Amino acid sequence: MTRVGGEVSAGSKPMKSIVELGQRFWRTYRAETLGVLLCLTASSLLGWLSQGNMLWYRSLRQPFFQPPAYIFGPVWTVLYVMIGISLGHLWRLRSQKPRLFRLFVAQLVSNFLWTPLFFGVHNIGAALCDIIGLWVFLAVFLWRVYADKLLFWLNVPYFLWISFASVLNGALYALNRMNG
Known about the structure:
The protein is mainly α. The protein has one domain (30-179): TspO/MBR protein (Ferritin), CATH 1.20.1260.100. It has helices spanning 18-50, 54-59, 72-93, 98-120, 124-144, 149-175, and strands at 2-4, 7-10, 13-15.
């Protein structure tokens, strides 16, 4: 590699500087980056606020298929990155597809409401109703975006996880009916 006129060159092709690449990435993916940051920040804040309720959660009777606690953080982190990319992509399309954007925002609000319902007020039944609504929002969303392969495939893992989480929430409700 040699330096040619201020640019690093690998053979005959000049390579872009890291700053130029960062600027190009920001111009191209600003909405998606902000969507990811928004989702990760909101979910981190909700997780931090619910930390004090882990003793309550551990006191609940758990179904046999309850995953280990260490699974949830990495799974949700990956999902929130994908959700944030979707949010940014839909933000760009919001004037052409306002109903689709509102549907996605509605499911995101439902997603963020679940944590305070479940961990904040310990209302397993209300959290179950919320997650069923979230599942419906996501099912309708996936049906509406099937032709947009990026949005569809970014949200299939999320839908599958919410499907599992709904069953888990239902089992927790059934096993702990007296607690909420």
